[in-house]
């Protein structure tokens, strides 16, 4: 998701005056709009579906973090070793 500095940075005043236009832009481009107050970034508006995608991706990353820690600490086994042990334990 790239940002166009000429299109995607808008003032809060512009948002107040042109709310529908800003929302149409967000929905059409799927890019976030950075809102400024006195020339400084204050907030970011994004399309609701894009927000859901980002949230889902972030939640998946949170689930993977413990597995990455296990790998770093050497708490894993090779797949073939795991399946051999599994078959032995389950008497398959």
Primary descriptors:
92 residues, alpha+beta, three-stranded mixed β-sheet, single chain, 4 helices
Content-based structural category? alpha+beta
Number of strands: 3
Uncertain stretches: none
Number of helices: 4
Spatial ordering of strands, largest sheet: 1-2-3
Largest sheet: 3 strands, mixed
Helix content: 55-70%
Label the overall shape. elongated
Give Rg in angstroms: 23 Å
Strand % is 15-25%
Can you characterise this structure?
This protein is an alpha+beta fold and 92 residues long. It has 2 domains: 9-46; 49-90, no CATH class. It has 4 helices and 3 strands. The protein has helices at residues 12-17, 19-29, 48-72, 79-90, and strands at 9-11, 33-37, 40-45. The chain has a 3-stranded mixed sheet. A hairpin with a 2-residue loop joins strand 2 (33-37) and strand 3 (40-45). The radius of gyration is 23 Å and the shape is elongated. The model has no long low-confidence stretch (mean pLDDT 94).
Give the arrangement of secondary structure elements.
Blueprint (H helix, E strand, L loop, with lengths): L8 E3 H6 L1 H11 L3 E5 L2 E6 L2 H25 L6 H12 L2
Parallel strand pairs: 1-2
Antiparallel strand pairs: 2-3
Q: Could you give a short description of this structure?
A:
This protein is an alpha+beta fold and 92 residues long.
